[in-house]
Amino acid sequence: QVQLVESGGGLVQAGGSLRLSCAASGRTLSSYTMGWFRQAPGKEREFVATISSVGPMTNYADSVKGRFTISRDNAKNTVYLQMDSLKLEDTAVYYCAAVGALGVRVRSNDYAYWGQGTQVTVSS
């Protein structure tokens, strides 16, 4: 129903910035809650940020609060994750996810659709 493709990952120095994009096809995202998750080597997938379909409202993991910003452009059917002040511990594969919902969602099991992921590597 919904296909998600992430882009924008790469290698960046600590303190630098990256903007990830998540382009959707198959359905318009205006009625979907969107989320970003990440998985670091040897660790479980963890919540990063979410943005609701109404409002919209946002929510962030404590580890990225104040550094990352999630946004959506419904006209372009795209969701973004602006990452500033990157740290070594931000290194992970980042995944975009979608679910038909009104409010924010922080649990990975709540999401129905997932992208393939994009690698973000932060170096010193």
Description:
With 124 residues, the chain is mainly beta. It has strands at residues 3-7, 10-13, 18-25, 32-39, 46-51, 58-60, 68-73, 78-83, 92-100, 113-114, 118-123. A hairpin with a 4-residue loop joins strand 7 and strand 8 (78-83).
Helix content: under 10%
- Main β-sheet description: 7 strands, mixed
| Helical run tally | 0
Mean pLDDT: 96
Work out the radius of gyration. Answer: 13 Å
- Gap between N and C termini, in Å? 40 Å
Q: What is the string of helix and strand elements? A: EEEEEEEEEEE
Strand composition percent = over 45%
- pLDDT under 50 segments (min length 5)? none
What would you call the shape?
Answer: globular
Quickly give the structural class. Answer: mainly beta
Number of strands: 11
Q: What's this entry about, in short?
A:
The chain has strands at 3-7, 10-13, 18-25, 32-39, 46-51, 58-60, 68-73, 78-83, 92-100, 113-114, 118-123. By secondary structure, the protein is an all-beta fold.
Essential attributes:
4-stranded antiparallel sheet; mainly beta; 0% helix; 11 strands; 7-stranded mixed sheet; 124 residues
